[in-house]
Each structure stands twice: as C-alpha cells, then as structure tokens.
Amino acid sequence: MFRARRRCKIFAGVLVEYVEDDFAPTTQLSTIAADRSRIRILQLAHRTMIMRRTSDMGSGEMKKLQELETFIQDLEREAYEVGAGLKNEANFSAIFDKMDKLISSETVAEMKSSDIDPVEKGEYMSFLLCMMIDKNTKRYTDDVITRELEATVDINDQQVPFRQLPIIIANESKHKTRGQLEELRRRVQIEQLNPMSVNIMQFTHDMACSYGYKNYNDFFENIEGISLSTLRHETDKLLDATEDYYKKELAHYSETFLNIPVEELAQYDLSYMRRADLFDPMFPAEKLIDAAWSTMSNMGIQAQDHPHIILDVEKRERKSPRAFCCPVRVPDKVYLVIMPHGGVDDYSSFLHELGHTLHYAHTNAALPIAARYLGDNSVTEAHASTLENLIVNPLWLERRLGIVDTDDYLRFMKFFELYMLRRYSGKLQYEMELHGGNHKVEDCAAIYAKTLTNATSVQYDPAFYISDVDNHFYCARYLRAWMLERQIRTKMIEKHDLDWFDKPDAGSLLLQMWAQGQKFKAEAISSALGYESLTFDFIIADYTG
Ligand SMILES: [Zn+2]
C-alpha cells in the first residue's frame, strides 16, 4: 500500500491511481495498485539501465551511466524503505533529479544519430521520450498531488482527507451512505482536480504529437511494439461472448450481497461488493507463508531460502499491510515485503508479489540488461497472476488450507474476475478514444461514463474520466497478462493435472519461463507454449461452455 509514498510528488500520476485501488481486496484488483506504483518505477529505472549496453559511448556518457545506475539503486531502495516502514517520508524527488541532465532533447538527438542496434535504440528512445513527457509534466502533476493531499471533505462535522474516501466507501455497508460519500468525492474531483489533470493530459498528447506521431495511441503502439487494435478486437469478443453470464451473475450478487436492484448499481457499490469479507475466515494469516513455501518446495522451486530473495516479515508501524516486491538488482537482490494479516485479499496480493519476486530472482543473470529489466510487462504480470490464481484452484485450497466447501467462494471469484476483465476491456476502449486525437480531453467525460457503463452494466460517473486512466496504457499490459496467464494455467493443467502446484515437472516449466526474464513478448511465450495466438479463448470458454 505504501502509504508514505502517497506523499511523494514525483510519481504523481502513479500515486493518484494508486490510491484509487490500494484498498481493493479481491484477486486481480488487489494487486493492481502495487503494480502501478512498482512497475512505473521499474519502467523508469529499467529503461534507464538499458543505457549501460551502449558501451560504445564516450567516457562522458559512461560517467553518466554510472550515475544512472546509482540512481536506479537509490530509487528501488527508497521504494523498499518507504514501503517497509523504515522511513517516515519518501524522497523520490531528490533521487529523480539526479538524471535531469540526461532527459533532454540533446540526448534524443545524440541517440538518433548513433550506430546502436535498432532494437536497442528503439528501447532507449522509448525510455527517453516517455521520460521527456514525465519531466515536462512533473511540475503540474506535483500540483495535482499537493491539491489531493490537502483536500478534505466534511463527514459528520469532521474533516476527512479526500484520499481516505475510497477506503471509507468500500467499507460502508449502506448503499445510500455510499452514494452520499461518493458525491463528496466527485465534487472534489470535478472542482479541484480535473481542471489541472485536463491540462496535464493535453500536454502529454501534444508532446507525443511533437515527436512526429499522429496521436498518443500511435506513439504507444510504435514505441512499445504492441497493437492496441488487435487487443481491442479480443476484448470486443470477450465482451460479446460473456455478456449473458455476466449480467445474470451481476443481478444475483447485486441482490444477495448488496440488496440493491441491479439497475441501481454504481461503481462504488462494486467497491463494497469486492470486499467479500465473508470469505476472509477461509484464509487465516498464520497459514499464508507455510502454504506458499510448501507449494514452491513441492514444485522444486527455491523460494524461502533463495539467496537472492530478501524476505522482510518484520512488523513495523508504518509498514505497508499489502505485500510488495522491490527488485533492486535483477536477479541477485529482490525484496519481498510482507506482513500477513489474513483474508482472501492478503493471500492474493502475497502470491501475486511472490510471482514477481520469483520471476526476477530466477531470471538468468547472463541475459542482457534488456531481458532482465526491460520488455513487455505483460509477462511479469502473467507470472505473478499464475501464482495469485492458486487461490481459485480448489485442490490448492483443499491441500493447503483444508477447505473443501468452495462452491460459493469460487462462484463469486469467477464472477468478479469477469467484472475486472470487462472493466479493463472498457478501460482500453475508452483510453483509445481519449488518446486517439479525435476528441478534446474535456469532451471525454461522457465517453468514459458511457463506455465503462456499457462494459460493466454498472453506473460509472463521468467525474472520474481522467483519474481512472492507466498510465501509458498499463491496462493493455494487464489484459495481455490475463490472456497469457490463462494459457499458462491451461497448459499446466493439461500436462500436470489440476494439482500441478505439487509437482516438480510443473515447477521446471515455471523456472524455464522465469529464467527468460522479459526477453520475449507475451505473444512469443504464448507461441512457445504451443498456442496459435494470444487470446481470451480459454477465458471465454470458461464462461460460455
Ligand atoms: Zn503485478
């Protein structure tokens, strides 16, 4: 959860989103906040590290690269110390400023004319261009964060920080009160935050165009090598195929969990629904670590005593209650920070972060920096989700936690996974409109509400049309990760049965994939597993079969 990191002003865009979901206690959602924060840092840091491969640079550049390496280590260490509760306040700004001179049009020009391998140059340019945008919007995002931190709302004559509202709403059992609280939240969003955020978004779009791209979509697709339209096609298929199942289950849970007519459901009601705290007793804190270690041990995977993994389980007042992973150096120094408190959310977030940790710690040290640090983050998200989704494997639940009556729990988890898939499909659709160059930013609020509401059958408020946007299309990374994870899971079950998690051969397959770091994109891994393409086919079949 990194509460102290909310005070950081540098990674403003990340932190705004982080707060949105940092209390979210259900599989997938629970881990997204941590990913957003951590992955953004990694993107900055790791893209920086690719520069070390440009060893043909002169001595001045080499000195710059050494400074960058120090910067990366400082950045990750700061993330760890703040998240682990070892520091009172984050100071990313000072660390970030160390690379100020590098992020300049002069360096861009230098790179363009260099003889570096085209693929390598593409990665470097991708880093530089993104960082130029971050650098140029930093001051404005600082202002948004400051305003958010200062904003309060009046609840029963008490001034409550604006940023606590999502947490309060998610824990509020009365529908009417949730609506009243949401009204307070939307007023701050509209009156204080959106005017500034619109300017940042517009500036970001203008900068992407200034690089010579048609619009931000074009910019993303070209520098990242990912087709948004192909992904959009897959999400359209998913939305169509699963609609009947989804609407039926949504009505069921609206009635049984919330006692609200389905047509009155709003997004904030789903925040409360996803608490799903009735299932928490199934997931006691004291069994979490043993369950994880015994699973890895049975698969022949070194985890608990891995020399590259630094496990931080110490209790501290300011320590994040949510597990997180900080890969300070890949593969030889990866922090996994936990403070088990039990509940389904705790299990899902720990297993997810364990997946990232094992992926980084088992990455082949001989691989180039690009393969260890850069690449398609859909891949590490898929590996994280593979372990996270053990909590929906009935045999794992039985063997590790002794749970045999899982029908109600698994039905709810299956429904909520579909909500998330549909929500992110809607987000992709919306963000492609927002960034597509056909609308003014301020005209996109209605498009946001209509698109997300259509995808989820839950009322979305236009007020959140900028705050509910993933930085640099990270929504696409998740969607691709969920496709790949399901293909990995299907392969595991085909080859090693449903209890693959207890078999060394299954562990070998995981180790082989982890060892590759992020050398390959999600499509290549899918292909190596024997699939024709990266699709939602298995997921769709699960809801329509
Ligand atoms: Zn993740």
Report on this model:
Helix 1 (12-21) packs across helix 6 (118-150) and helix 2 packs across helix 6 (118-150). The chain is 62% helix and 4% strand. The two termini are 38 Å apart. The protein has a domain at 3-225. It has 545 residues and is mainly alpha-helical. It has helices at residues 12-21, 29-49, 59-83, 92-97, 105-112, 118-150, 165-170, 175-210, 216-224, 228-258, 267-273, 285-298, 344-361, 369-373, 377-388, 394-401, 407-434, 445-456, 474-496, 504-515, 522-528, 537-544, and strands at 152-155, 158-161, 309-312, 324-329, 333-337.
Structural topology:
Blueprint lengths: L11 H10 L7 H21 L9 H25 L8 H6 L7 H8 L5 H33 L1 E4 L2 E4 L3 H6 L4 H36 L5 H9 L3 H31 L8 H7 L11 H14 L10 E4 L11 E6 L3 E5 L6 H18 L7 H5 L3 H12 L5 H8 L5 H28 L10 H12 L17 H23 L7 H12 L6 H7 L8 H8 L1
Parallel strand pairs: 3-5
Antiparallel strand pairs: 1-2, 4-5
Helix pairs in contact: 1-2, 1-6, 2-3, 2-6, 5-6, 6-8, 10-17, 10-22, 13-15, 13-20, 15-19, 17-18, 17-19, 19-21
The chain binds zinc ion.
